[in-house]
Design goal:
Layout lengths: L5 E5 L12 H13 L4 E4 L11 H15 L5 E4 L5 H9 L6 E7 L8 H14 L4 E5 L1 H4 L5 H10 L3 E6 L4 H10 L5 E4 L5 H7 L3 E4 L6 H12 L3 H19 L5 H9 L16 H14 L1
Parallel strand pairs: 1-2, 1-8, 2-3, 3-4, 4-5, 5-6, 6-7, 7-8
């Protein structure tokens, strides 16, 4: 899908101090992304602290995001988890609104076999009215979806159209690129490896740091798509330290603090996540001055 080429951002979910969703800030953040040249947005991916939201809250966030974007750029909805039956029911009942695809994370904690992962996505693909983007993030899920399983799913289900790969395994990326069917997309799920993955043939990035630096992330992805890797490298190197700091105390605590410093909301999180500590704040402050 051409709509999913280039720079996507996995939106954070802003909260008020009392833990309720801050829709005013969410609207401002969406505008900030679009003005920064981001190609598409992911609403309630794992960066959105989705596991801590109720189903009613998720529905309201999706509706608000769709209404506020107002068809300006494509939207992807994050619907995933480790209870296949529950995810299938959520997908069946999802109001597609203006969403073009669903991003669904590989089951976490259960540590299913490769056949279990295949059957999980098979059930999702058969239930979905929208195309599916696989999401492999072994550091969070506790299990890796192999290249063979990814390619098997891509071949068996025409509505499985892409994979967001955050395994950090370049041999695995290479196998997917070699064996995937025509039209299937490999998308980077890790900001630090966007440039090398796109140099190999990945379609783009679904970014975390793009929440705070959309102009830089979109420029990086667009330069890579144009084959201008020398200019892209300069942005890649410029962003590396701030990317590291975004994750040093967990995602999205770091990027929420950066957004607070930029005047876009406050760094409130839902437990069990907490804001970054003083040392990380100091390091982020110093790096933000370098990036200004």
């Amino acid at each position: 899908m051409n709509e999913l080429q280039g720079a996507g951002v996995a939106l954070i979910t802003p909260f008020h101090a009392d833990g309720t969703v801050d829709y005013d800030t969410l609207g401002n953040l969406i505008d900030f992304q679009i003005e920064g040249g981001i190609d598409y947005l992911v609403s309630l991916g794992t960066t959105g602290e989705t596991a801590t939201l109720t189903q009613d809250e998720r529905k309201k966030v999706w509706q608000f995001t769709s209404k506020h974007v107002n068809k300006r750029i494509p939207l992807v909805a994050g619907i995933g988890g480790n209870n296949t039956y529950e995810i299938v029911e959520q997908i069946k009942n999802f109001e597609t609104l203006d969403y073009v695809a669903i991003l669904s994370v590989s089951p976490y904690y259960n540590k299913p076999t490769q056949e279990g992962i295949y059957q999980h996505y098979k059930a999702i693909a058969e239930a979905s009215k929208l195309p599916i983007i696989l999401y492999n993030v072994p550091g969070r899920t506790g299990s890796n979806m192999t290249a063979a399983t990814t390619v098997r799913l891509a071949n068996d289900f025409k509505n499985i159209i892409a994979t967001k790969e955050a395994s950090g395994n370049f041999a695995q990326f290479s196998e997917i690129l070699r064996d995937m069917p025509k039209g299937f997309l490999l998308i980077s799920g890790d900001d630090p490896v966007t440039l090398p993955m796109m140099a190999m043939g990945a379609a783009g990035i679904i970014s975390v740091v793009g929440n705070a630096y959309p102009t830089k992330v979109s420029a990086l992805a667009h330069l890579c798509r144009e084959g201008n890797f020398e200019e892209a490298k300069a942005i890649h190197l410029e962003l590396l330290r701030i990317i590291d700091l975004c994750f040093v105390e967990g995602n999205p605590a770091g990027v929420k603090y950066i957004l607070e410093k930029k005047g876009i909301g406050q760094d409130h999180l839902r437990l069990p996540l907490v804001p970054v500590g003083p040392k990380t704040r100091e390091a982020i402050d110093a790096e933000m001055q370098q990036l200004a």
